[in-house]
Amino acid sequence: MYVVLYPSSPSMALTSALLSVGYHPVPVGGLTEAVDKEPDGGWACAIVDLSSDAGAGMNFSAKAREELSIPSLLVVDRTLTDDLRDESGFDDFILTPIDSNELRVRLMRLGSGPGDVEPDESVLRFRDLELNTATYQATIGGSPTDLTYMEYELLRFLVENPNRVWSREQILSKVWGYDYFGGSRTVDVHIRRLRAKLGEERAGWITTVRSVGYRFG
Questions:
Q1: CA distances from 214 to 37, 127, 154, 161 (A)
Q2: Where are the beta strands (DSSP E) in 133-210?
Q3: What stretch of H or E contains 56?
Q4: Among residues 64, 9, 3, which one has the least CA distance to residue 32?
Q5: What CA–CA distance (Å, rounded) separates 170 from 73?
Q6: Of 162, 166, 159, residue with least CA distance to 187
Q7: Whole domain around residue 156: which residue ranges?
Q8: Which residues are registered as beta bridge partners of 77?
Q9: Do 15 and 84 have their domain in common?
């Protein structure tokens, strides 16, 4: 799928991340160039890097949404999040340094995921919980539940691997990856947040096994 990339001199890291998750970025210097270069199938999304000129980037993002009718994803340095105060000119954002998995998820949530996934194959279910792995949406009792990326990944792992005990170290390696340098307290914090979002009636789905770890189901 083709995404329009602004500005015309994007970073190699951003370009490589887009290519690695199945998107073909086309750098442009403005909206007129985006219209001229638009592929036959249209743009899937606008990717706007705010690192060089935040004002110009926000302006391009707003125009792309309004005039090209495509969603806009901002790429923002984590030290410059003040640029996001006006939320009317973009649909989502991702902080640098870019994680390819998070980039893929955010683009899919904007409805611009490459390829089609059969609905039955993309939905995980446990009682009245549903996790749509194609769109990264979660519902409990039919109501949408707002989860962060890592909360979703942790809950997904637990749903896919029920009825066995996992140590904190195992969960860290399976969900966060072997290159994660945080401590096991990260798992405890995310488990506590998940229980809160599941609600009092469902918090017991995640059981603490003393001196070992956690079990789901």
A1: 52, 19, 12, 11
A2: 137-140, 143-145, 165-167, 206-209
A3: helix 54-67
A4: 64
A5: 33
A6: 166
A7: 119-216
A8: 96
A9: yes
Beta carbons of 59 and 81 less than 8 angstroms apart: no
Please say which residue of 109, 136, 168 terminates a domain: 109
- Pair (211, 163) in one structural domain: yes
pLDDT of residue 40: 85
Which tens digit of pLDDT belongs to each residue from 108-159?
888 755 544 444 457 888 988 989 887 788 888 888 888 888 899 999 999 9
Question: Does the reported pTM lie above 0.85?
Answer: no
- Asked if the model's pLDDT at residue 44 lies above 50, the reply is yes
Split into its structural domains, the chain has a count of 2
Burial class (CB in 10 A: 0-12, 13-18, 19+), 88: exposed
- Token readout for 5 is 């990339």
Place of tokens 């942790």: 154
What is the residue whose two structure tokens read 């999040």? 81
Q: Share the mean pLDDT of the chain.
A: 86
Tell me whether residue 114 is in a domain.
no
pLDDT at position 134 is 75
Contact predicate 165/174, CB 8 Å = no
DSSP annotation string for 101-155: HHHHHHHHHTT--SS---HHHHEEEETTEEEETTTTEEEETTEEE---HHHHHHH
Residues 198-215 pLDDT 10s: 999 999 999 999 989 999
CB 146 within 8 A of CB 193: no
Q: Any idea what the CATH number is for the domain that residue 135 is in? A: 1.10.10.10
